[in-house]
Amino acid sequence: xxxxxxxxxxxxxxxxxxLETMLNLIKADALPxxxxxxxxxxxxxxxLDESTERIADPDRPAEIHQAAxxxxxxxxxxxxxxxxxAVAASPVPDHPDM
Length: 98
Hints:
mainly alpha, 3 helices, about 75% helix, elongated
């Protein structure tokens, strides 16, 4: 397998992970509720919009991989922020007295 194929496979994995995370957030109705979470989701959506043409161009695997990795990092950050916000807003304490 040559380096272009390897990069393309990595890019596809990164994209799949980002899209799976987004789909799981939607399925769980895990909506951003804080300004930080909103900002991260807006950044992720803007990144997806801006990188669509690069991702669709199979002749530039390095650029596709960079765009996919950036998108995956943004979506993961947004997911973590949404989950942190949900835990912080939970009425149940993290470590109840036993």
